[in-house]
Amino acid sequence: MPLLDHFHPPLSRTHPWRGFHGAWAAAIARLLNAGVLPSGYYAVPFLDRDGPVEIDVAALHEAADPGPAGGTDALAWAPPAPGLAVAVEWPGTDDVSVEVRTDDGDPRLAAAVELVSPRNKDRPRAREALAGKCAEHLRRGCGLVVVDVVTTRRADLHGDLLAALGAEPGGPGPGALSAVSYRSVGRDGDGRLLAWPADLEVGRTLPTVPLWLGSDAAVPLDLEASHRAACADLRIRLAG
Fold first, then answer.
1. 174: three-class secondary structure by DSSP
2. On the chain, which terminus has fewer CB atoms closer than 10 Å, C or N?
């Protein structure tokens, strides 16, 4: 099932983006929970976290599970080398703090998948809000994947994210439609933002990108399989 355009006829009339957005997020979570995520992790679509911030697909790590993010079952899949690396000054890790948790504490956010909507790109304030949310995920050490299939508006979301992180541009960014996986590594003066950009195109199949669970383990996020499942859930068929 190649990438479809839900922003122009005929799909904008029969299956507009808002409905497909929900089906795709649910399909991604279902795919991740079907044996892709290691033990102790699970995916939830449309998670409200920290007030008004909503994550399209969140990968969570159970607070009661002491297992490391890099368990043996998570390392069976090795991602390719990153396509981009940018120097970033992440928050230091030598601060002193005391955390008090109950036995039924909230699970820890390990990774987030953001499916870009037209509203995320329609004005500077909206783009800044999206970039700020994504930057905060990365500052906390979470993995991040940003999927932009919006064909009606153009925006440099990768550049907006770098600006939100106070980083200089690191080579050519992704194209107009893209899926970009991000991982934050290092701290202080040795911090870096690693990126795995993949250009998307209407009519072509979608790629598999790494979804990083913290700093040292990744699982495959098969966008083609989840996109195909969402289309099947909504009974979308290719013409001809």
1. coil
2. C
DSSP collapsed to 3 states, 5-62: CCCCCCHHHHCCHHHHHHHHHHHHHHHHHHHHCCCCEEEEEEEECCCCCEEEEEEEEC
**Contact status, residue 233 vs residue 15, Cβ threshold 8 Å:** no
Distance CA 193, CA 165 (A): 9
The three-class DSSP label of residue 184 is strand
141: closest CA among 78, 74, 192, 104?
192
If DSSP codes are grouped into helix, strand and coil, which group holds residue 193?
strand
pLDDT tens string 124-170: 999 999 999 999 999 999 999 999 999 999 999 999 999 999 988 76
Strand-pairing partners, residue 90, are: 188
pLDDT one-digit tens code per residue, 88-101: 888 654 333 343 43
